[in-house]
Structures
1.
Amino acid sequence: MALPTETLASAQDAGEALHHFEQARYLGRTAALFLLDFRGIAIDQLTNCVTELRKALRNSELIILFDATDSPALAACLKIAGSTERMTFLTAPLGGNLVVKTLKAVAERQRAGAHSKRAMRDSSEAIKGLEVQIEELRARLDIAKHASRHDHLTGSLNRSGFVEELNMRLTRNRQMQNVLMIDLDRFKAVNDTLGHAAGDELVRKISTGMAAVLPSGAILARLGGDEFGIIAESLSDVAMTELCNKILRVASQSRIIAGHEVQVSASIGIARQGATHSEVELMRQADLALYAAKREGRNRFRVFDDALDQVTQYRLTLESGLERALNAGQLKMVYQPIVKADTRAILGYEALVRWDSPDYGSIPPDEFIPIAEETGLILDVGEWIAREALRDCRKWNLPYVSINLSSRQFLRHNVGERILRYAADADVSPHRVQIELTETAIIDDVERASYNLRILREAGVRVALDDFGTGYSSLVYLKQFAIDCIKIDKSFVDNIARERQSAVIVASVAKLAKSLGMSVVAEGVETEDQRTILMASGCNMLQGFHFGRPMAAAELAPGHLSEPKY
Ligand code: C2E
Ligand code: CA
Ligand code: CA
């Protein structure tokens, strides 16, 4: 009979067959198929053979020939193998054709199995490779960033280094942070009369003097011309006063610069970390305190308190006004198209909230959503947003709506069921709903997030990861949460036309996302150049002012379901 043209070796028993197999392996071949002829042979010999071969060759195909009458042999083989996987039984008497067909089919199965295993191995290696590549690019960006964090004149941190350091300490340290902003009084006069070189020398000397009086763990930065910042941890009132007096003394020492005696002084504004964890807020408070110190006569320090602050008043107003705004119908939803990168066809809309306040005008969501999160009002506001967006989806026949859920809202008990109920109430299929989450919403409570995601995904709701690239998690890690789509943060898109590295990162992320089965939306696209580069980088969906600003549902161009717009 005609057998498939592969290398063939025959043996009298299993021992000999295994010997052949070892030889083949030594020559770099693998034995894929074993044809065992057990016609007329005792059952215990058969079972011994199968046991041995299965142990030695887990992944090979075994084809066993036996007499049609020998059903105990069949039962014995099955018992050993546990299943018929990779085992085929042929009963004698045999038609030659049947044997060839069977051998071919089994060989094919073996080949396909090996191929898919290799493909899986290859793709997981490719994914690893891409992750490494992204890591490397990130590291290179980090090096560039490091260089851009320092001040040339004094060697200390510059403003962006200072902000980053403060941010890091506020998120990672449990110690209370204090921010001191220091401004030299009458420095401009030195610069104007003695020249910039003299000004630089004075700045350098004062900087060195201040560095020498810092408490341990504190850090000094030069924030601008004659402006310095200090971050110091957990200082008592007494220690803070002591530190400030030392700095004032250092600054007001008289010095000889460019042959002239020079004396300046300093004003200091201090913010102590209270409820806020925002570096922007702490620096703003320290700045306000610094201006107060200057107003009050310079050469002194001033600690920030609420009385100094209009913004605190504004926040309080927002806090108390938001609930009223919700009930008085001052919140509105607007919708921004998400388009197909190549044709610009509108695929769906992201829902964004607006607050039109009669007292303050239009208040951006960046300002009031964080307040709503802190006060817990986000739960009511979030419910209103989701219901409104879904109603609009139904009313204006939007292809889908993408609803932003803040972390606190997403980690709410039963949020999955809630969203599905809102969709049902609005008569919108879950397939027309997408939710947007940030990484923190998932990572803050992995168990609850997984549960909520499962409920939503099973019903057909899509999940997008918002602001991707601003957090720290790897895509491969996030993949386990069954995310459909990642939205690449606007900061990458902003730089993409200018910085090759941003483009390369976006391309790697897009490629990796694709290999993990996720689609990619790039956000904040404002120019045709950006569109071209993003498309080449593998982003299949785009969003940004270039395609459409967020608009009230009633103002959306009619017929968005019709042919693509160019
Ligand atoms: P986000 O989710 O990243 O939303 C995208 C923001 O980018 C929106 O700002 C949008 O108007 C803006 N944008 C879109 N394309 C462009 C562009 O080409 N250029 C520029 N410069 N900006 C663009 P918006 O509406 O002010 O929202 C800001 C943030 O507030 C949102 O960022 C989101 O984090 C939050 N937010 C807005 N609406 C909601 C909401 O309904 N619920 C929740 N939880 N958060 C919301
Ligand atoms: Ca969003
Ligand atoms: Ca975003």
Note: The longest strand covers residues 346-357.
2.
Amino acid sequence: MLFELIIILRPESKEAERKELKKFLEDTGIRYNETDLNGLPVIHIIENPHLLDSRIAEDFSAVNRAVRLSSPSPLAVQDKLRQKKKTISVKGHVIGGSSLTVIAGPCSIESYDQLRDIAFLLKRAGINILRAGAFKPRTSPYSFQGLGKTGLDDLKRVANETGMPVVTEIMDTRDLDIVSSVADIFQVGMRNMRNYPLLKELGKTTKPVLLKRAMDAPVEEWLLSAEYILKEGNENVILCERGVLNAPSCNGRTIMDLNGILDVMERSALPVIVDPSHAAAERSKVAPLAKAAVAAGTDGVMIEVHPNPHRALSDGFQALFPAQFEILIADLRKIRELIQSQEKR
Ligand code: PEP
Ligand code: MN
């Protein structure tokens, strides 16, 4: 893959400063052309650009900015280069627009009654999208694996009754038709971020795909997974950060990678949402992480809520009680308003 680099010089930089940079490039084995770009002095790296990190180039006093012209994931970054934010519309709600997206619901569909009760409560709280899994990727084969097709039927019923758009996980290309008959958004879980056949098949559909970041994936690799979907023609990818690994983690807890979130928002115009529930893996930490994610300027959050967390069949320890969730949502909306009023300044 080609990594072409353009180094934009400060017009007022001195000849000696430029010479220092050019000598460095020559010593490093990099061939370049000197040219100008709309009147700005520019050094165009034409050979071996991979030998130069743009941040190193920017350390030189002659340099204003070093810009990589091509990326390993061109489709995931193209709108950003055009300074256009990607928005995705789902049943009247716009993800990536001016309003905060809140996706909420239980980890798993456990029964029609469980799902209906929580869904109506969430609808009353003004939640945009209902989440609930029928196919569950569990670490242990002895854990609850989800209700499968029956769960999808429950989800469809509740989606119709509430009118809420729904996001649900797909793990296997063989389930594409049945999941597609219910889901407004496909969820790709963090374990399947590298399931390339699945990503390619989802790329051939037109429904939005919420792509979770694998716990150990660098931002570049996450964007390459998005690229698999985009390359097949589906432009509707939502990136979802759900915590990354650091030191050996305790009880499933990960680090919500705020730095990575800022990084991906800087590189790509795709909507970015955060799942503080799976990052925290502990109820008491979900609210502070969610607030931090919204304060960082993300497009939304996905939060697990259960009508009775102590009886949940999966992830009950991190599910919020409905009353806790409602307080959190009010706080998140206030933070969002504050962030937006600052952006306007
Ligand atoms: C989930 O959303 O319930 C889930 C299993 O998430 P993750 O893939 O992030 O572990
Ligand atoms: Mn879960």
Note: The longest strand covers residues 40-47.
3.
Amino acid sequence: MKIFNTLSRKKEEFVPLTPGQVKMYVCGPTVYNLIHIGNARPMIVFDTVRRYFEYKGYDVQYVSNFTDVDDKIIKKAIEEGVNADTVSRRYIEECKKDMAAMNVKTATVHPQATQEISGMLDMIQTLIDNGHAYVAADGTVYFRTSSFKEYGKLSHKNLEDLQSGFREIKVTGEEGKEDPSDFVLWKPKKEGEPYWESPWCDGRPGWHIECSVMSKRYLGEQIDIHAGGEDLIFPHHENEIAQSECANGRSFATYWMHNAFLNIDNRKMSKSLGNFFTVREISEKYDLQVLRFFMLSAHYRSPLNFSAELMEASKNGLDRILTCVGKLKDLEANASEGAAVGEEEAGLGEAAKLKRKFEAAMEDDFNTADAVSAVFELVKLANSTADETSAKSYVVSLKATIQELCDVLGIITEKQAEVLDGDVEEMIAARQQARKDKNFALADEIRGKLLDMGIVLEDTREGVKWKRV
Ligand code: AMP
Ligand code: ZN
């Protein structure tokens, strides 16, 4: 399996640290608003990467964080006259609903920055102790980039160029920096902002430290894949590498994967430009499967332009697959028992070839565009060869192949058996019990399972309420 590694700028053969296992960390959203469909691109892309590894039989540990302390969250909280916590909790819930509706699997762990402060204090202290960080007069702690000879290796930037580039920029409040390219690990509190005590000053973490700490806590010092959108290469991922490798004394992630942007009118979709659609807005017009299918119709490293025409084309393409599966299902119900013969044997051979084509596309740096084409070819094969005279085994086999491959893409082809109210109530009761027992990990796991089944929970004053998404 080949993966394009931003570190080497080459496709490399995937070799896991531990045979049969994949440890991956995907940088998640900052939660101060509903997510937009640009944010959804890495969610869908890396969920598909995860699904393909699982299809290949790997045990995947998938961690994706929520950044829940940040200037934008604090600003929103001040505007609304509530705590930052209230804002982030609300948008984490909303984000989880969107992920479930896009059939993005719940991560093994979804850590939150504010719950991991003590780990951050430990790592920052280690970096100070070994000379990779220093404390300025106002209590700000900076990472000393010149202490890490490999700084710039991910973004392929040269530290000297960076230093001269930054020299012109004087940032107020950062006068204590030894060098303009140094970055903040911990900063003093400002009036009205959330803060935590630390040996250096009451304050809060810089943005980058959280991912180094959460990745280490939940996956260990070394991981296989670290991923996110390409805007994270510099400075975020470059700084994560510096922090993790200097604190742990070993290399951090083997493969760095970055998705290209989702654009609109050929400009990056972003909150700050205001040129975005939220996932929620799209869900009013389309089943979010269409959005997922649209995202996967392009290779993840190619820019993708969002347009109504392309969404319509995706809707039609997806309908073609779903209609075909529906037809095969009807044929299966009415077909006579019997083994495939003659032409059908050839059809099965063709289907097996197309399945290999799908796999080859996925193994070539997750080329979902080509993988989707292989599914369309299967649909064409089914439409032209399966009919009322077909043997049941032939119909069943074609349907199973299409569904298996769609499942890797996270496309649901058949309505899952209705989740019974009684089962949901039972799981909610088990979650309540776990919470009573202070087994929050189990409680979260149950909530995650329910989300994967399309059930969203809301903890209200009157108790737990639930609904289907
Ligand atoms: P943020 O909340 O801005 O930190 O973004 C969360 C994730 O979404 C990161 O991995 C970003 O790189 C990614 N992202 C944000 N905007 C886009 C976009 N227009 N296209 C693709 N990925 C994006
Ligand atoms: Zn991160």
Note: The first helix runs from residue 37 to 55.
4.
Amino acid sequence: MSGNCIFCRIARGEIPSTKVAESETMFAFRDLNPQAPTHVLVIPRAHVASLAAANDPKMLGDLLSFAASVARSEGLEKGYRVVANTGPDGGQTVDHLHLHVLGGRHMTWPPG
Ligand code: 5GP
Ligand code: ZN
């Protein structure tokens, strides 16, 4: 837990968000600035700064599984993209590990 972390505060319900799914350890909510028709952020409730700082393989597996279950429940059967922006070069702007689940349109490659 981190007192001032915006995503910790969202997971605790202290900052409003549009919840998509939750479990004892995970929380999923809609991105405030969606980049696709479906854009959900999936986070562990426990504060971890980034993928680079994560050291719990079980948590990482659960996070990825949770993202896949969110994609299923969002009806993304045509496909989707899962992104973990990591660190400054990765474009990470919120220092709490999160997966973006993007879908509802064709994704291009390479990313910007
Ligand atoms: P990053 O750039 O770190 O990979 O992703 C952070 C994401 O969090 C961005 O897509 C941004 O739109 C989203 N975001 C930032 N602050 C909030 C917020 O207060 N509520 C929600 N729902 N999304 C946020
Ligand atoms: Zn946090």
Note: The two ends are 32 Å apart (CA to CA).
